[in-house]
Amino acid sequence: MKSLPARTVDAVMLEQRAASFRTRSIKTTAKLAGLRLAMSMVDLTTLEGKDSPEKVRALCRKALTPGVDHKGRPLAPVAAVCVYPTLVAVAREALGDSGVKVASVATGFPSGQYPLAVRIEDTRRAIRDGADEIDMVISRGAFLAGKRDLVFEEIREFKAVCNASASIGGDAPAHVHLKVILETGELETYDNVRRASDLAIEALLVDGGDGPAGTGFIKTSTGKVTPAATMPVTLCMLEAIRDCFLTTGHMIGMKPAGGIRTAKDALHYLVMVKETLGDRWLSPDWFRFGASALVDDLVRQIRKQGCGKYSARYDYAEA
Amino acid sequence: MTTRLEVNKTYKLFIDGKFPRSESGRTIAVADARGRVVAHVCHASRKDLRDAVSAARKALPGWRNATAYLRGQILYRMAEMMEGKRGELAAALVVGGGRPAAARREVEVSIDRLVAYAGWADKFAQVLGCNNAVAGPYYNFTVPEPTGVVAVVAPDAPGLLGLVSLCAPALCAGNAVVAVVGADGGQPIAAAVLAEVFATSDLPGGVLNLLTGTRDELTTVIAGHRDIDAVLAAGVSADQARVLREGAAENVKRVRVLDHKATGNKGAKVTRGEVDWFDAAACESPWWIEPVVEMKTIWHPSAA
């Protein structure tokens, strides 16, 4: 691995800049377009110990039809359903060839504190069961202990597993996308977030940045640690993606996850993506929201835009 | 020698146990009887009402699941705190155009009204509920449950008493309340003081929210908001009543619109459909609770 330039982050400016995205006024048709775009970018997620096949099936139904607009017309599906490895097969069957992707957390989620062989097998099984996307966690312990080479090699190894998905057999898709979870809530400083982002991006690109759109993502959090996704942290990672694009020409995807619950938050994130990376990233191929409650609020706001009235809690499915 | 500058209070909204300004930044000037502007109160917007309804919805489970005994205690506590602020409340009513003696009486009757509903909290279910005789081996009984989020549109006069008389039955039954007070002719300052009293009354945040604004604007939003389950309104115009009823039809909100006479002056004629807010016998009955509860009937197998 190359030695990375030591980029330090100006925390004050970063936070001010992130806060400034909240001041944009987005109204009427632009707002509606933003809400629908945000909906198409959601990784509808359930990652609980009590998840059951039936809960995942219900979530898949919700992913296919997140809700109806004020005239009762069904809304377009979300980007993906994100589940634990044991439930990938259930989700795969429920979603069929609808185009909604199956994402699976793997690699010893959420801690990553398992032997490498176990984590690789975890990933391979999820792919064999039909996962289109793998959300991996980095070894934060190793990263914070300064063993950056180790983290780098691990990411590279998981990327290789994803790239070789065709050889795994079973229901493995031809292309498997990899999202690298940095778990920014445990990285303590923006400097670390930036370093981990640069490291992950470099590891994702080490075997060449080719392949279909969005094969490599960096992701903020598991959702199991507080704070999860915040706007400054996401901005810090977006800047890493921007700098990579400006120097190498390769695009990397971004997924903030955890804590984004309202449609208004989602719109602020979209503004941040547009103003940091540009329109090319405003697509589910390059930007995702890891969320569960967000979908209900998006449906609520889309209906509100349509008829001007606020909805009741019983207007949505609860999955 | 320096002259002391008076420290005037900013009257704000009461949402989710906090005192925010209107998100719109708007205010309404309140004038006293002589036409002098005495305060600028918040002019609540559609979004403030939305926030208040969200807060009420969030607070509802805790409040409705609290024991009736606890709700009664908290209502009594609200009365206790009002008692301590009698002077300030009466002064606020005077600023809003009331006469000192009438204002004092209105505050006292308001406090007594809260005490009355504090008493009803663990008793109204026995009056409104019942055992039903059925032809079969069942024990069959009917119990009242709170309707949910109740919007209250308070009358202009008596501003304080009308507000308390509408909120107390709804709170007593375990509903969460979003109350709207007209700042253009009502008693918005007294309402704002009342919010400060209730904020320190053990009432969980969000159970009671108070907005000052214009009734025309807010009744339209209340009517269209699907997450409001019932509306209690008094002193609204015929147009506003129609807007409320039409909007409520869409998601079958319960609507109760009361007419009222303008003042509580002795000797004023009470006509049919009007409420004499100062009449304890008329205004402190479980029939005021009945419009904000739903009846649940249970069939329980019995051995007989």
Overview of this structure, please?
The complex is a heterodimer of chains A (319) and B (304). Chain A has 319 residues and is of the alpha/beta class. Chain A has one domain (11-306): Alpha-Beta Barrel (TIM Barrel), CATH 3.20.20. Chain A has helices at residues 11-20, 28-40, 53-64, 88-95, 116-128, 140-144, 148-163, 190-205, 231-248, 263-276, 294-307, and strands spanning 42-45, 80-83, 101-105, 133-137, 177-181, 216-219, 253-255, 289-291. In chain A, helix 7 (148-163) packs across helix 8. Chain A starts with 10 loop residues before the first helix and ends in a 12-residue tail after the last helix. In chain A, 49% of the residues are buried. By secondary structure, chain B is α/β, with parallel strands linked by helices. Chain B has a single domain (39-301), classed as 3-Layer(aba) Sandwich (Aldehyde Dehydrogenase, Chain A, domain 1). Chain B has helices at 46-65, 68-84, 86-95, 100-120, 124-128, 159-172, 188-199, 215-224, 238-251, 280-283, and strands at residues 27-31, 37-42, 130-132, 138-146, 149-153, 176-182, 208-213, 230-234, 254-260, 274-275, 293-301. Chain B is globular. Residues 261-272 of chain B have low confidence and may be disordered. Chain A binds chain B through residues 308-313, 315, and chain B through 50, 53, 57, 224-227, 250-251.
- Enumerate how many helices of chain B there are, as a single number: 10
One letter per element, helices H and strands E, the order of chain A comes to HHEHEHEHEHHEHEHEHEH
> Which range does the strand content of chain B fall in?
15-25%
Number of individual domains of chain B: 1
End-to-end CA span of chain B: 89 Å
Which fold name corresponds to the CATH topology of chain B? Aldehyde Dehydrogenase, Chain A, domain 1
CATH superfamily of chain B: Aldehyde Dehydrogenase, Chain A, domain 1
- CA gyration radius of chain B, whole angstroms: 20 Å
Q: Average pLDDT value of chain A? A: 92
Pattern of helices and strands of chain B: EEHHHHHEEEHEHEHEHEEHE
Into which percent range does the helicity of residues of chain B fall? Answer: 40-55%
As a whole number of angstroms, the C-alpha radius of gyration of chain A is 19 Å
CA-based shape of chain A: globular
CATH superfamily membership of chain A, which one? Aldolase class I
Write down the CATH topology of chain A: TIM Barrel
Most strands sheet of chain B: 6 strands, parallel
